[in-house]
Amino acid sequence: MSSEDQKKWNTRYADQRRTIPSPPQDLIDIIDALPTGKLLDIACGEGAVALFMAGRADYSVTALDISDVGLINLKRFAQEQSVKLATLCADLEDTASLSQLTDYDCITVFRYKPTAALVRYLVSALADNGRLIISTFNMRHHLECGFSARFCLADEEFVNVDSRVSLLKLISASASPYTDTYIFQKNTLD
């Protein structure tokens, strides 16, 4: 595990006065595009997406993050909200540690910029017809808000990321926070 990344996020989440995070508006806007079933939330932090989805009927949620402190907070928030979910502490740069992740109906990645290699790995973890949702900051967010460009998506960065998925929709937010939201569906094998 990248110890520097883990330390950074553990420090951020160490404040005991943390509050339950709200789901991002981008998720609310596309909720009807998410299939029910087995859901994996990547780079979940303290669980803004995972908690919201676990609170809805017909979802079995696994939340994955590098920060064990963030996941401890997430478990506390889940208990406070009486929702059930599973957590997994893993480094997204070490795809070998993700090998047990398979057959998800939906995988979400919010407010985290995955590498193209990670996106391809996540496609492998989808069930046939499963959906991969990637929603994170774009370059307009960098230009308008000063957010680091290295964490922002280039225009249409993932449009042709993997031939095993079809891009159903690409939504670019017209107000801050400026994000791009990709909705992919895994092609079925004939």
Explain what you see:
Helix 1 runs parallel beside helix 4 (68-81). With 190 residues, the chain is α/β, with parallel strands linked by helices. The protein has a 7-stranded mixed sheet. The termini are far apart. The chain is 28% helix and 27% strand.
Helix tally equals 6
Termini, distance in Å?
A: 38 Å
Q: What is the number of E strands?
A: 7
Tell me the strand percentage band.
Answer: 25-35%
Shape summary? globular
Strand order of the largest sheet: 3-2-1-4-5-7-6
Could you name the ranges where pLDDT drops below 50 across 5 or more consecutive residues? none
- Rounded to an integer in angstroms, the radius of gyration calculated over CA atoms is 16 Å
Characterize the largest beta sheet: strand count, sense, and whether it forms a barrel.
Answer: 7 strands, mixed
Mean residue pLDDT: 92
Secondary structure class reads alpha/beta
The residue fraction in helices comes out at 25-40%
**What order do the helices and strands follow?**
HHEHEHEEHEHEE
Question: Which descriptors apply to this entry?
Answer:
alpha/beta; 190 residues; 6 helices; 27% strand; seven-stranded mixed sheet; globular
Helices and strands in order:
Layout: H1 3-13, H2 25-30, E1 37-42, H3 48-54, E2 59-65, H4 68-81, E3 86-89, E4 104-110, H5 116-124, E5 126-137, H6 139-145, E6 165-172, E7 179-186
Parallel strand pairs: 1-2, 1-4, 2-3, 4-5
Antiparallel strand pairs: 5-7, 6-7
Helix pairs in contact: 1-4
